[in-house]
Amino acid sequence: GQFGTYWQRPGRTLRDLRLIEDPESKVVKYIIHLQQNESTSNHIVENIAIIALLFKVSGFKEIETQGNILYWIMKKNVAAIKKVQKVEPIYSLDNLLKVLENQAQKIDEISENALMGCIIVSTMIFSVLRLAEVMRASAVQAEYSSWMIDTSIWKGDDGGVIVHFRKCKHRYTSSVFWLSTWINKCRSRLIQNNLWYLTKTHKPATVNQGSKAVHEIMKLVNIDLSYTVTSIRSSSITKQIAIGATKQQVNRFTRHKKGPATVARFYNKNTNDELRERLATFKRKSLINKKVNS
DNA sequence: ACTCTTCCTCATGGCATGTT
DNA sequence: AACATGCCATGAGGAAGAGT
């Protein structure tokens, strides 16, 4: 849209794009235009990816981004959006679990929205699925009153995923308890792609509504509003590491392809304070004894 | 209250480079 | 040769704002 507005100055139509002889220089001009309008680096990088695709499907040969002028112009913007490694705090997963337990006590009083929030939160904690993946999931009942969540992962190159939740001794935080409650209230939620059916609107909840429901629960925990729904993944993974899960366990659990790297970069929110404490601890006594002896 | 757009964040395959 | 690490391009995810 933005490129269209920029391109369609008087006397120039989108059709004229086909007549361009040197798409690269047009792209460069457009970047300069964006920079002059103080666009963010994110915006510029995203725009150029899209425009390159636009030219490609219009029949031009692929725009090279390596070793040419476009590369040098983009370098600054690409560098600016790289993830900065820093220590970020994360709320404790235990607080979320506590709220789930509290809500379970008064399960008949809470609203449909809050109920949905609890189920999404519980599912995300124990499956490490993303919100969008949870929202397009279907539920299947399995043996010994366990549940299977069947979804597909579009991010990356993974296909379908089936997560199996079994009964667990921590009943009121478990996905089995929450899913059973949710589905028993309305059996038609067992129908494929109908898991998040809302009786209020008579249709499945959207990702947007799911996000809002989760934020309602996060509010009950007094989690800072700046945290996103994905932070539940972070909190879950951070706790996994804290309780001593091995690299392999975290890998399998999170279904990351390059688990350790991705987790270190985006999910492990350890402040390292505990490790610093331990580094700083040394045996004072023996030092003193040595002095006395000498 | 809903949909669409914009901005920022997460994630990966494929390749390049380094080490044993 | 096998194993290990790092970089790049780019598309999906999520939040917030705009428009209706």
From TrEMBL:
InterPro entries: DNA_brk_join_enz, Integrase-like_cat_sf. It comes from the Eukaryota. GO terms for biological process: DNA integration; DNA recombination. One of its GO terms (molecular function) is DNA binding. Keywords: DNA recombination. SUPFAM superfamilies: DNA breaking-rejoining enzymes (SSF56349). This is Tyr recombinase domain-containing protein.
